[in-house]
Amino acid sequence: MDRNIIAILRGVRPDEVVELAGALIEAGITKIEVPLNSPDPFDSIARLVTTYGERALIGAGTVLSISDVARLKEIGAKLVVSPDTNIEVIKATKAANMLSYPGVMTPTDCFSALRAGADGLKFFPGSLIGPAGLAAIRAVLPKGTETLAVGGADASNFAQWQAAGADGFGIGSAIYKPGINRAEIAARAAEIVTAYDAAYDL
User: Fold this and answer.
1) Active site includes 122?
2) Catalytic residue among 73, 94, 122, 146
3) Can you give the pLDDT at residue 202?
4) Catalytic, out of 16, 26, 31, 33
5) Which CATH number fits domain 5-199: 3.60.10.10, 3.40.190.10, 3.30.230.30, 3.20.20.70?
6) In which pathway does it act (predicted)?
7) Which of 64, 68, 76, 81 has the highest local Cβ count within 10 Å?
8) Is the pTM higher than 0.85?
9) What residue ranges do the domains of the chain occupy?
């Protein structure tokens, strides 16, 4: 089952990332990003690609430059997530045959991202936009536009976001914080999956 949940492992270290990601995949979360402001992020991403590249969608978050996109392509990443709508980054990502999920907040951001070729829209920070804001913007987006709520979405409010039109989520601190162990991330992942499946009738 391909749940539309991207686990955001901000702050993860290369020496622990394979073990922690394994717990996520076992729980049913098969989309994983390592933000580039984590320790040695390209090392972590390369390890994930080598170990789980056939079983999971692996990529980076907080991607801000086309040079980062090029490096991600070299190590085999498939997913590029950004906090902003950077047209150059989106176009470089698509030229490299990777998935592009730029951060958006306004209708202008949304349409600029889509015109540049974005595969989906990351509504960030979700806590400021809220389900009502997403629903309002969703009404004018092209049919079939993929929308992810990130920053403020967790197991407690998946149903509200789903009702507003969210297709999925990026989950950061609700699933991982630096210092937690495999058992803790497994427990958090199980809670996230249970809530997601209930909200989306899976």
Assistant:
1) yes
2) 122
3) 87
4) 33
5) 3.20.20.70
6) Carbohydrate acid metabolism
7) 81
8) yes
9) 5-199
